[in-house]
Amino acid sequence: MSKPVSVIIPVKNGSNYLREAIQSLANQDVPVEIIVVNDGSTDDTAKIAASLGCKVLSHPESKGQVAAKNTGIKVASGDFVLFLDHDDVMREGALKAMYDEIESDPDVSAVQAMVKDFLSPEIGSMPGTVIRPEPYYGLFTGAILIRRSVFDTIGPFSESIHTGEIIEWSTKMDANGFRIKKIDLVSTDRRIHHTNFGKTDGKVEMKNYASVLRERLKMMKK
């Protein structure tokens, strides 16, 4: 294949799950450039990534996951970009399936698959946590493959948004007439554990989502 994929993994102190995430990209049967953006980690994140042959970029101090994604985009050399959280696992062959879908239709700017939640094995149980039993669509990392050229048109993610940046960015895609194609595929297993971003920053997350949705509604009314 002549058009490789750049997989960007933004991570801070991800030594617990990073190796598994990276290794899941080895079973994809598509040329992959793995870019790990080490966002101010104080553990062995950078060392693990380098030992597995990844391109490693580092922020001396943490700038947040959105800025880390943008750092990765700047150096991505692939014709397609996919983001993967350091604690998630991509299913074997999923990236190849997504790649084939987007390559077969030049009018499609991104392909969106599904994710499935799983409780991290070492946790045992997390009272009050709801694990969705069925796969579901969402603009999650590991579930959307995007043409690199889209970023050249609409720019990077907004770093003023702590989370929910992909919703704001997809609104820009809609405004520019870019088409996202949903496919019947579970691409990624989404790990639920004690330090998930949505759990540790829940209040900020909900505030950002509300702000982004308000802006989206304004654009829809124009």
Q: Low-confidence segments, ≥5 residues, pLDDT <50? A: 197-222
Oligomeric assembly: single chain
Radius of gyration: 17 Å
Find the count of extended strands (DSSP E, 2+ residues). 9
Give the overall average pLDDT.
85
Helix proportion range? 25-40%
The termini sit apart by 42 Å
Shape: globular
**Annotation field: number of helices:** 8
β-strand amount: 15-25%
Task: Give the biggest beta sheet.
Answer: 9 strands, mixed
Judged by helices, strands and strand pairing, the structural class is: alpha/beta
Order of helices and strands: EHEHEHEEHEEEHHEHH
Model description:
The protein contains eight helices and nine strands. The chain has 222 residues and is α/β, with parallel strands linked by helices. 36% of the residues are buried. Residues 197-222 have low confidence and may be disordered. Helix 6 packs parallel to helix 8 (202-221). Strands 1, 2, 3, 4, 5, 6, 7, 8 and 9 form a nine-stranded mixed beta sheet that branches. Helix 2 (45-51) links the parallel strand 2 (32-39) and strand 3.
In short:
This protein has 222 residues and is an alpha/beta fold.
Provide the descriptors you would attach to this structure in a database record.
222 residues; alpha/beta; nine-stranded mixed sheet; 8 helices; 9 strands; disordered C terminus
Q: How is the topology of this model organized?
A:
Layout: E1 5-11, H1 18-24, E2 32-39, H2 45-51, E3 55-59, H3 65-75, E4 80-83, E5 89-90, H4 94-103, E6 110-119, E7 136-137, E8 144-147, H5 148-154, H6 165-175, E9 180-192, H7 197-200, H8 202-221
Parallel strand pairs: 1-2, 1-4, 2-3, 6-9
Antiparallel strand pairs: 4-8, 5-9, 6-7, 6-8
Helix pairs in contact: 6-8
